[in-house]
Amino acid sequence: MTSLLEGARRLVARGSDLGGRIEALQSAVGAARGRLDDAVVDEAEEVVERAAARLRLSADHTVVAIAGATGSGKSSTFNALTGLELSAVGVRRPTTSWATACVWGSEGAQELLEWLGIPPRHQITRDSMLDSAGLIAGPREDREMEGVVLLDLPDHDSTEVAHHLEVDRIVKLADLLVWILDPQKYADAAVHDRYLAPLASHAGVMLVVLNHIDTVPEERRGAMLADVRRLLDQDGLAEVPVLALSARHGQGIAELRSEIAHRVADKRATRQRIEADLRAVAGRLNEECGSGKPRTLASGRVGALEEALADSAGVPTVVSAIERSTRMRARQATGWPVVSWISRLKPDPLRRLHLDLGAAGKHLTGRARTSIPEASPVQRAKVDTEVRALADDVSAGMTPPWAEAVRRASTSQLGDVSDRLDAEIAGTDLGVARIPAWANVVRVLQWVLIVAALVGAAWTVALAVSGSLGDDSVPALGGIDLPILLLLGGVVVGILLALLCRLLVDLTARNRAAAADRKLRDAVHRVSAELVVAPIEAELEAFATVRTGLDAALAS
Q: Which of 383, 352, 377, 375 is nearest to 365 (CA)?
């Protein structure tokens, strides 16, 4: 890009923003690659590279290409403009497929000629020709043509494929195009359909010349020129001047030379050609891209997608298992020990899912994956539907290529979602490994009550065996013998405490399930953001880059 900017500075001094427009189109091309039609993107990339290369080269020379069909007098016009017999005409036309170049002012032109691909043997420097003829100063016409690189192209309708390939190549590179038409075939589709009409966006850098005007009766010349004008208007070239001349007799040559000299003198031809190329290819890329503005990702759509992913990943199953496991473990700790051991015979819901995370709460119990049931076809279909709806929603109003790119991006990593969700869930610290601290206090209290009841029972049995039960010698409290109070109190209080703790256990289980649900949904959010949302956002960013670049390239 350094060389591009160096070339741009030369033209910026003349009020041009070509450097910035080329860079803008270059960024649009980069973002469009793989998303829009390859042929259009390739063409745009070629134009960017060609424009950047032209900016690096001589800004003091203007490349003027003379093109025409066989017999149009193209080479005669070239010779008349140069004042030298440089190009063979008529039956003496060479079979070479190379263009011939004549340069006025050779300083700095050599690199430009190399870029044009003109072999040295087909290059003529006008200054050296004048020197060899003893005309050092040169006539006024040569001073007017200073800075011109005049090219005589092969016949565009030649039967030699190499000839019209050379014409096609130079037509893309020339700063100013002069089309020579013959009175007998000026309406030939070979030139109108292949060159003139496709270059309608380049009207500012073209001239059309009707040669051999001397062969047309004077009374018919005006009508013929008007017909040429009509055909050009149909081609979209209403702004292109039409000149009449006879290269053989020199008629109109001065006017043509003056028109070329004027275009060269104001130093706008190179800039206009590059601008026309940029605008034309940016227009084609713009048609492919479309001007619609995509919507931003709606939070409701993203939320619906995450809900479907959570459902397919078994988050509700895990949350339910956490609630039931927490309730089971806490009840085992706070329940009446005489009957709470029965619950230990039931399998732990988390262990069945291989989500019993051990004492540390961070490691699986010997499994690399969970045993959460796989998503059902209905759940998978729901995920697919939500992904498609999300892509369709943000791509509404975009052209089919972009809409397809968004849809393709949305599903590009969908196959990895299931494994990633399973891994995320398995690696999430659910915070259920330990029972609440208050449950441990209740567990100790329950065993104290059991011990008290056993002591009371043993004491009561002993008193009953000795016949001392009910004696005044037995300690009493509130009129009730202490052994019986210990027995009944230990049992009754233990049962009541267990019943009371069930309320706390249920509350704790719900809270832990809710906390785990938040963590699991955060994990689902991360997976969704990385594997579905991020690729879609990348496409939206690419679209924005293309649109910004095209808007800059197409700016007036």
A: 352
Q: How far is C-alpha 471 from the chain's CA centre? A: 96
Q: For residue 350, give the nearest of 369, 371, 374 by alpha carbon.
A: 371
| Residue 163 parent element (H or E) | helix 161-173
Please say whether the beta carbons of 284 and 43 come within 8 A. Answer: yes
The partner residues of 102 in beta bridges, in order of sequence, read 124, 150
How far from 329 is each of 326, 356, 367, 504, CA to CA, in Å?
A: 5, 12, 22, 13
What's at 440, amino acid-wise?
A: N
How far apart CA 286 and CA 288 sit, in angstroms, is: 5
Among 390, 345, 349, CA closest to 373: 349
Helix, strand, coil abundance in the chain, percent, nearest 5: 65, 5, 30
What is the pairing mode between strands 176-181 and 100-103? unpaired
Cβ atoms of 132 and 64 closer than 8 Å: no
Tokens of 306: 């995450």
Residue 333 tokens read as 């700790």
In sequence order, what DSSP letters do the residues of 408-419 get, joined into one string? Answer: HHHHTTGGGHHH
Q: Which amino acid is at 439?
A: A
The alpha-helical segments, DSSP class H, found in 235-314 are: 253-265, 269-289, 299-312
Cα–Cα dist 317/57, whole Å: 70
Contacting residues for 422 by C-beta, under 8 A, at least 6 apart: 313, 369, 370, 372
**Per-residue confidence in pLDDT tens, the chain, 556 aa:** 444 444 444 444 343 578 889 999 999 999 999 999 999 999 999 999 999 999 888 888 999 999 999 889 988 999 999 887 765 554 444 545 689 999 998 777 899 999 999 998 888 887 655 444 444 444 555 678 888 999 999 988 888 888 889 999 999 999 999 999 999 988 988 899 999 999 999 999 999 999 999 999 999 999 999 999 999 999 999 999 999 999 988 899 999 999 999 888 877 889 999 999 999 999 999 999 988 777 788 889 999 999 999 998 888 888 888 888 777 777 777 777 766 666 665 666 666 665 554 444 444 343 444 566 677 888 889 999 999 999 999 988 888 999 999 999 999 998 888 888 888 877 777 766 667 777 778 778 878 888 888 887 887 777 777 766 666 666 767 667 677 777 777 788 878 877 788 888 888 888 888 888 898 899 999 999 999 999 999 999 999 999 999 999 988 7
What is the C-alpha separation between 481 and 314, in angstroms, rounded? 57
Question: What radius of gyration do the chain's Cα atoms show?
Answer: 45
Residues 6+ apart with CB under 8 A from 68: 74, 77, 153, 155, 156, 179, 180, 181, 182, 191, 211
In 3D, which of 258, 338, 306 has the Cα closest to residue 521?
A: 306
Q: In 3D, which of 98, 113, 108, 106 has the Cα closest to residue 163?
A: 98
Give the type of residue at 128.
S
246 phi and psi angles, rounded to 5 deg? -130, 100
